[in-house]
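Worked problem 6 (solution included).
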Amino acid sequence: MRMGKLCLLLIIGLLAGFTQTEEATESEQSDKRLICYHCDSTADKNCGEDFEKSSLYAIDCSIYQMPRHLIHIFGTSTRNATGCLKTITTINDEISVTRSCYYGDTNDTNRGCVPDPIESFSKGFDKCDVCLESLCNSSSENLHMATILSISFIFIRILL
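Solution. The predicted structure is:
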């Protein structure tokens, strides 16, 4: 019985190590700059909910200025991106996913999660997710991995 517990601990340790290695690799690619995925599923179906990570969609947010429709909210066009953004909107009964750089206070996303009023979906976003790490706006995959790890650690704690 004790050997089974040790094997389980080893498997979970390896899984946790793999997760940290993958995140470190993505961070190294960003060179300490904020890199976000940038695409729109209305123009590119590969940008939808079933998004597969690709460097083709990665952009360095430091070279992009804040969108014009946010200037009146934040007061400057030279403000740097503070995170990565993923929005989901329903347009004419179809789901639209947009990934881009986020500008504004990451603790008050109500101010920064504002669609461009020129766009057809200016009524608002159904969902607006902001994250702080480079390449974090791909999907909720990291959330699923964190949930699996948390459940595994709870299970081990119960066994021990």
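Discussion: DSSP finds four helices and six strands in the chain.
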